[in-house]
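Input.
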Amino acid sequence: MSRRMKAMRCLMIAILALGFAGSSAAQTLKLPPHERVVLKNGLTLLLMEKHGVPIVSVAAIVKAGAVADPAGEEGLASVTAGLLRKGTAARSAQKFAEDLDFIGASFNADANADFTTLSCEFLAKDLDKGLDLFTDALLHPVFPQAEVDKLLAQDIDGVKAAKDSAQSVALIYYYGYLFGKHPYGRPEGGDDISLARIKREAVEKFY
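Output.
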């Protein structure tokens, strides 16, 4: 057995072990008491109150991820998520960052294979300001051309740099080998070729 095959076999065993461990944990997971509300538009809202710490954490899950990327534009979901905070109808990217810093809040958006997650955390005393920032990014992004170009350039540089580290790309190649032409086999963040094809109009359409 070649060194490459041995490495691939070890990687497969490790991934399977993690999968079984995660599956076991998911079966025993029990959420603390919480409130579940389904709104008229079908949106499901989960509220879990814990008043010991004066922090509010808000998260949204959107059922659109990397598997929805058009062929040849892999990375589109990831780029769209990254641009949500890079300019809205009311705030520039800089203004959004300044408003976050002013209340000490954090904001993250990321696309996985099957869904996109957005999260924001801030002090309870800043509830109105924090929710305003969160909903502004979620509902009113405008995707300025300059920000699109900047983020795509950064992502392309990141993809090229990752190729210098086997550890950074091992799972990408493994999923490509495992799933073949299925969307699960494509890199969630795209590659330097697919990212270079993405235009602002495609981001807006995907959103």
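The longest strand covers residues 55-62.
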